[in-house]
Design brief:
TAT_signal; D-Maltodextrin-Binding Protein, domain 2; alpha/beta; NitT/TauT family transport system substrate-binding protein; SsuA/THI5; three-stranded antiparallel sheet; 15% strand; signal; five-stranded mixed sheet
């Protein structure tokens, strides 16, 4: 086939024709539709920041937010295709679905870090007054969790292990939703709980609970939440998945600068806080919600880096407790090709 080199004038005419064709409405590539699983917690702030600031759109993604009350239902939605990406804690349900080839963890998000107030261990007022003033005294007490096999379940295991308390000496109370655990602790129906500082500090300030410890004393490198998707997305939708990670990571930088490192100026802090307030603690006055974010935010890993040691420890614990099958390997659960591992 003969090829004819274009002179400068012909090249300019060609470029002009291409521009004319575009101006007459040749369709651009449609934005990729994405359903993102979220929970109305401050730890999900980057989900909302990226949505409101157009970071997803900038990456060619048309994102809808799909709200959940707990981690396990979100994992089921990812596996079934009702949601494309999720950011939540590892759970027995998520791991089991990975064992069936349905989902993959592709990144890390919220993390415990020494020097930053992380999850707070709380006692109800009733239990505190009866002597529960330290995690060392949890034997014979009740502890709130959302579901069996949730991150709260793993956290109470780590607390018990560090204090030499057999886990079966603590009564676990699965209450399904975070709001239900808040209510049960506030009313003294359960004795203890461990929760993110944005909620824990608010409960303390309102006189509904007492602080008896910090979870970072027991697991300073705990990978609290992870980013996950379907195995099909991880394997076959690489460009879309990378675009999602880029958009989310940009929002993570905004969140950390405003609330964790506190390097953003006051106007930026207010702007980011207003975005989050639309979705989290929307029933509170803005100034209260803003202060909760400033006083109670944990770091989210830059670039959604994944703490492989922490998540592998969690996998092994779930297996040791018989909550997931013994033959599930890290390779079945984690796709480490998308982000840095730490």
């Amino acid at each position: 086939m003969l090829k004819f080199p274009l002179n400068r004038r012909q090249a300019l005419i060609g470029l002009g024709a291409a521009g004319t064709m575009l101006s007459f409405g040749l369709p651009a590539r449609a934005a990729a539709k994405v359903n993102l699983g979220v929970i109305r917690l401050a730890s999900h702030a980057p989900s909302f920041i990226a949505f409101e600031r157009g970071y997803y759109k900038d990456e060619g993604l048309d994102v809808d937010l799909k709200f959940f009350e707990a981690a396990q239902p979100m994992a089921v939605a990812i596996a079934s295709g009702d949601a494309d990406y999720g950011v939540t804690a590892m759970s027995g349900g998520l791991i089991s679905l990975a064992g069936k080839g349905a989902v993959k963890v592709i990144g890390g998000a919220l993390t415990e870090e020494k020097g930053i107030v992380g999850a707070i261990i709380l006692a109800s007022n009733k239990a505190y007054e009866a002597g529960l003033t330290s995690p060392k005294e949890l034997a014979g007490r009740s502890f709130g969790i959302t579901t069996t096999g949730s991150s709260f379940h793993f956290m109470v295991y780590k607390i018990a292990q560090a204090n030499g308390i057999p886990l079966d000496q603590i009564t676990l109370r699965p209450l399904q939703k975070v709001g239900a655990v808040v209510g049960a602790l506030s009313s003294g129906q359960i004795d203890a709980w461990a929760i993110q500082p944005s909620i824990g500090k608010m409960m303390i300030a309102e006189g509904h609970a007492r602080q008896i410890g910090l979870f970072s004393d027991y697991a300073p490198d705990y990978q609290v939440t992870t980013v996950f998707t379907s195995t099909r997305n991880a394997a076959d939708e690489r460009e879309k998945t990378q675009a999602f990670i880029r958009a989310y990571s940009k929002a993570v930088d905004d969140y950390n600068a405003a609330f964790v490192d506190k390097t953003a100026d006051a106007a930026e802090v207010d702007d980011v806080a207003k975005i989050v307030h639309k979705y989290v603690e929307a029933d509170l006055p803005f100034e209260t919600a803003r202060n909760n974010l400033l006083e109670g935010s944990q770091r989210i890993n830059k670039g959604l880096a994944l703490s492989l040691n922490s998540v592998t420890e969690q996998l092994e614990w779930f297996k040791s407790e018989g909550m997931v099958k013994e033959d599930i390997t890290p390779e079945m659960l984690f796709d480490t090709s998308y982000v840095k591992t730490i």
